[in-house]
Amino acid sequence: MMEWLQANAVLAGAIVAVLVLALVFLLRGRKTAAPKREYRDVLSDGAAPAARNSALIDAPPAAAIVPPPVMAEAPPPASDGDDLTRIKGLGPKISAALRALGVTRFSEIAAWTDEDVARIDAQLGAFAGRATRDNWIEQAKLLSSGDTAAYEAKFGKL
Counting C-beta atoms within 10 Å of the first and last residue's C-beta, which end of the chain has fewer, N or C? Predict the structure, then answer.
């Protein structure tokens, strides 16, 4: 053993240094334990010491805790047109591009002709062909008429 230590003194020193550093790191990160609460402190005569257990006394009963209300997503204002993203296959980026082209309502998309689709496709760049592939016109007809039952039967839940 002694011969090995003499032959590998650098390695042995490195091992000892790593062990010492690990021990220092572990001991440095230790926190002192919280003082134990006495059973009699909490339950003696129904009153707990005010300084230590004020959180237990002041906490509201579980029935008094009311969860925050769930905010429903507000529909876009009437002046801004319809929420075009309700059409399957038409996301926020395409919706923004259509709005830039002046298309803001389901009724406008529902009235598109083949020429309108070709004109819009030419201006949608990477999104060209989506109107036909995703049946935007048929979806827009159902959404503009307010027939959500027929829409959901054909295209799935809104």
Answer: N
Per the structure block, which two tokens stand in for 94?
């395409």
Question: Vertex 70, ends 146 and 68: CA angle to 5°?
Answer: 165
A 10 A CB-CB count for 67 gives: 5
Segment among 7-16, 42-51, 102-111, 124-133 with least mean pLDDT: 42-51
Classify the C-alpha dihedral 99-101-107-109 as positive or negative. negative
Q: Which residues contact 89 (CB under 8 A, 6 or more apart)?
A: 130, 133, 134, 135, 136
**What is the C-alpha to C-alpha distance for residues 87 and 137, in angstroms, rounded to an integer?**
9
pLDDT digits (tens, 9 = 90+) for 6-63: 777 777 677 888 877 777 777 776 666 556 655 555 545 555 555 545 555 555 565 5
The 10 Å Cβ neighbour count of residue 14 is 11
pTM (whole model) above 0.85: no
